[in-house]
Amino acid sequence: MKKILAIIKPFKVDEVKDALTKIDINGMTLTEVKGFGRQKGHKEVYRGAEYQTDFIPKVELSIVVDDDRVKVVVETIVNSARTGKIGDGKIFIQPIEDVIRIRTSENGLDAL
Known about the structure:
Alpha-Beta Plaits, two-stranded antiparallel sheet, alpha+beta
């Protein structure tokens, strides 16, 4: 199993969720986060004053899938989250040793 952690722009959440639902991904965790990458933040204007915003709002999606589904899930996220502009985000893939469903004590793929 693998954990797919995707950092995306907040306004792309619904589009990504809908695309993942179409490929039968029914479970994910969403966290609102802030961060910056190569763009190092951006400048904004508020009441006529310009100021630097170092941390940009993003959304972190966390999805655990069987190894054979990783490629299609990653492709789906990339295709639905891409705007073609700086700050589209990143995807990280991590190995998962085991998963346990608390209610039934099922583990592994049965727990997903």
